[in-house]
Amino acid sequence: xxxxxxxxxxxxxxxxxxxxxxxxxxxxxxxxxxxxxxxxxxxxxxxxxxxxxxxxxxxxxxxxxxxxxxxxxxxxxxxxxxxxxxxxxxxxxxxxxxxxxxxxxxxxxxxxxxxxxxxxxxxxxxxxxxxxxxxxxxxxxxxxxxxxxxxxxxxxxxxxxxxxxxxxxxxxxxxxxxxx
Amino acid sequence: xxxxxxxxxxxxxxxxxxxxxxxxxxxxxxxxxxxxxxxxxxxxxxxxxxxxxxxxxxxxxxxxxxxxxxxxxxxxxxxxxxxxxxxxxxxxxxxxxxxxxxxxxxxxxxxxxxxxxxxxxxxxxxxxxxxxxxxxxxxxxxxxxxxxxxxxxxxxxxxxxxxxxxxxxxxxxxxxxxxx
Lengths: 180, 180
Description:
The complex is a heterodimer. Chain A is mainly beta.
């Protein structure tokens, strides 16, 4: 009888070693004792859970008017920024530290023949300072240790007379959630 | 006879049972599983229309001493405006309203304003209903400076006078529209 149990133990232990080479979850069994109270250690591996949400899939940049336009050489500083029609809410739920990055899929956008730099679009979170959009992922400043968080994401744009002629302008923004 | 398993047997099963529970809690496969939302894409878009302007809206016209058959009878008045547009544009003028005391013609000349005798060019009489195109560009402009010249003559009515620069300034209006 005792030999049988020991054999079972050895067999299960070998299975464990084979299948859980990378697992970090370990069950601690107490030393067998004739006087110890029987106990069972429950152990489970909790995986990373990071969820990202945004309350809409798009926003209009608004329709630029005269004040939003400037000469190509100076519009980036002289033209009045055009606020997007709506501010969006980005939300994160995570069980471990995280951060959110923002980027664009293309360096320029605009109708055929127009190459408007995506950096003409700026974003900010909450009441922070605006930063230019780029194809390089940039931290949104929305980061935390764990739990649930949300923040308002706003966009604005500037326009140049010589380049930004009438037409349809559309660019894709990517929000990436990652574990830290 | 009803029998209860020996306590010692339960103790021997304790370790394998704990190990089995631990193994069962590990996700399938040896990799450490995660649930991280994929990047979210977000579209920023707008449709831009034509943006045109002329500044100042009421440019000052000053009477000058130029002569020549385009400035006589009556007198010539000159001023300058700046046209801006995000595509090709036309600068147009008309009277508002048509004054009774004097008549006004737009003088199109290649003679520099510094030349005293303005003899080469054309005169086009203005009214308050028809916009006259006086300058144009097939491409966008952040600021095209345009000199304008008008010839005003005393009206045929008994109240007819030769206008002052201020009177003519208030009688002419300007606009910039898309190049057709």
